[in-house]
Amino acid sequence: MAAKMIRYFRLPRTLNRSLPVSILLFALLALFGAFMALPLIYAVNNAFKPLDELFIFPPRFFVNNPTMDNFLDLMVLMGNSWVPLSRYFANTLLITIIGTAGHILLASAAAYPLAKYRFPGSRALFSIVVLALMFSPHVTAIPNYMVMSWLGWINTHASIIVPSLAFPLGLFLMKQFMEQIPDALLEAAKIDGASEYRIYWSIVMPNVKPAWLTLMILQFPALWGSDGGSFIYSEHLKTLHFALGQITEGGIARAGVGAAVSLLLMIVPITLFIISQSSVMQTMATSGMKD
Amino acid sequence: MQGEPVIQTVKSPKANVQKNSRWVSFIKELKRSKHYYLLMSPYMIIFFLFTVIPVVFSFALSFFYFNMLEFPRFVGWQNYSRLFLNDDIFMIALKNTLMFAVITGPVSYIACFVFAWIINELSPKVRAFMTLVFYAPSISGNVYFIWLIIFSGDSYGYLNGFLMKAGFILEPIQWLLNENYILWIVIIVQLWLSLGTSFLAFIAGLQTIDKSLIEAGAMDGIKNRWQELWYITLPSMRPQLMFGAVMQITTAFAVADISIALAGFPSVNYAAHTIVTHLMDFGTIRFELGYASAIATFLFLLMVGTNKLTQKMLRRIGE
Questions:
Q1: What architecture is domain A76-286?
Q2: In tens digits, what is the pLDDT along chain A, a chain of 291 residues?
Q3: What ipTM is given for this predicted complex?
């Protein structure tokens, strides 16, 4: 058993660890891993607990008599809702997909010149983006609302999507990774007659795939969990998170449904996470574009 | 006596020419970089509209008295002087925030890197799984639940139950209501939650390291993993390390949600009050927006200063 586990520590390197160190590391990872996985395990267990177990005192971590009741109740509740659930789902999907894809596209397009070239204003613009990360969002809410209402975007999906396209985090992350692309690669492309746009799209972007996959798993859950904030108030424009949140607002009687809801809301980001993490590794195995 | 104007007339055209040529070359440079501006423009327009304008506006608001009902009234530095001279609770918040930042910032930064470094060497499938496990607290919504059960103040709370069974204590301790413990509990939970953005950036960064560098290093006489880490891995990851540092600073100084979820708002005797909870108090409860903006501006300067210091330290890596 132990030998099998240790095989997972295969090092594709020139320097190898000794066996005791590997065992120690494995123990360390397992210990901390168990600690970090607690919320996931708890959420899964809670979703399958019957109501009496949810309110048992003292509280239990694991489920004793797993049941699907919570999910069935949720389906009944959603079937009775005034706006069909699919509508909320479509709204969230629209916001999340445009917001994530658009952010990756715009942020990396802006990051490429900032990472690789010096031109008037380049350094100032980059520092403004980094500094913007440090200003507390709690006080910018009101000026933000004023900008939105000036644009006439209150109660539209644009009020959520468009600002998310230019969050400072994405540009900063992409710029840091693009710095590592060797200049020789870009110059070679230029000599071959590629335009800046072509270089950005077919050379820079494939080379920083781990970066934008990471950006995707950072941006996606943020938008997926968006409840529309203070900008959206029409029921048919609201998001899935908001609709499901309302169910749990029903109080104690809805605790079981609430547990099912929080599990369902987690599934999509986690699935995306697993897919993207495994494709990070595939790219790195195949691309050898470094000098 | 008449020498001076003569010299001036000789000098000025020359200066003009110089100025002109500098202007011309500047324009040339702008034209040469037009593709870059074009690439940046969509992002920058949105960024200025929805981030820079609100931030500048809030900064300006810190010199006003504004309660959302009356028109803002200019008060100069009054908000700032009140912050430092007349607000005892702010001083508690400042002390707590510095304590959080000094402990959680460096510890979680190093933990992010160490875990990323270890996980990166696992076989691909295990790596994806471990990354998910370590990132789990950041994606699961109801995370504070668990800690509320563990630190529950009655004898059924996991920690109390364990300590009583083991005989360390005789009566349950009100962990979340005790001034002596609450700050440390919030620090622990913050650390547990902190394997987020920078952790993922480090994982991705480790995967972009040029493998041939490591082979070359072995040829050049790198003897052990520590040397490899210091002379090859860390220097090749400098951009990611800088990114991680900024992210850690912004989260370490902005602790608020955890404090509110565990210790309540406000916490007992402000024992877990932070700058951001103080800001929320004035911004969203008392509606003294000018004062809240002054707090935000101060926090901003604190982060910028820390960031300058950190970046200076990071430049020394691999020397």
A1: Orthogonal Bundle (1.10)
A2: 444 444 444 444 444 567 787 788 888 888 888 888 887 888 888 888 888 887 777 777 788 888 888 888 888 887 777 778 788 889 999 999 999 999 999 999 999 999 999 888 899 999 999 999 888 888 888 888 889 999 999 999 999 999 999 999 999 999 999 998 888 889 999 999 889 899 999 999 988 888 999 999 899 988 988 887 788 888 888 888 888 778 777 777 777 888 888 888 888 888 888 888 777 665 554 444 444
A3: 0.85
Q: Within a domain: residue B163? A: yes
Across chain B, where does the E strand assignment appear?
64-65, 73-74
CB within 8 Å of B289: residues ≥ 6 apart: A139, A142, B61, B66, B67, B68, B282, B283
Q: Which residue has the tokens 């120690």?
A: A24
Count of Cβ atoms closer than 10 Å to residue A152 Cβ: 10
Residues in chain B: 319
- The three-state secondary structure class of B74 is strand
**CB–CB of B231/B258 below 8 Å?**
no
- Within a domain: residue B69? no
**B200 contacts in A (CB within 8 Å)?**
214, 217-218
Most distant CA pair in chain B: distance in Å?
101
Residues in chain A: 291
Tally A–B CB contacts below 8 A.
264
Chain A: residue whose CA lies nearest to B290: A139
**Contact between A290 and B224 using a beta-carbon 8 Å cutoff:** no
Instruction: Tell me which residue of B130, B136, B105 sits closest to B116, measured CA to CA.
Output: B130
**Is B212's CB within 8 Å of A131's CB?**
no
CA-wise closest residue to A99 among A182, A230, A216: A216
> How far A100 CA sits from the closest chain B CA (Å)?
13
Interface test with B, best of A18, A23, A136, A150 (most B CBs within 10 A): A136
B64 located within any domain: no
Q: List the structure tokens of B124.
A: 């691909």
In whole angstroms, give the CA distance from residue A23 to residue B129.
18
| Entry pTM | 0.86
Are B207 and B120 a contacting pair, CB within 8 Å? yes
CB atoms within 10 A of CB A51: 18
Number of domains composing chain B: 1
- Name the residue range of residue B118's domain: 82-313
Task: Give the gap in angstroms from C-alpha A231 to the nearest C-alpha of chain B.
Answer: 14
pLDDT lower than 70: segments of chain B:
1-18, 141-143, 318-319
**At residue A231, what is the residue type?**
F
A-chain CB neighbours of B188 within 8 Å are none
Nearest-Cα residue of chain A relative to residue B306? A134
Q: If you measure CA to CA, which chain B residue comes closest to A7?
A: B123
CA of A75 to nearest chain B CA: how many angstroms apart? 21
CA distances to A33, A34, A222, B144, B262 from B162, in Å: 21, 18, 37, 20, 20
Residue B13 inside a domain? The answer is no
Nearest-CB residue to A132 (from B51, B207, B243) = B51
| Shortest Cα distance, chain A CAs vs residue B103, angstroms | 19
For residue B172, the domain's CATH number is 1.10.3720.10
Q: What is the rounded CA–CA span in Å between residue B42 and residue B47?
A: 9
The C-alpha atoms of residue A22 and residue A7 are separated, in whole angstroms, by 10
* Partner-chain contact A196 B35, CB within 8 Å: yes
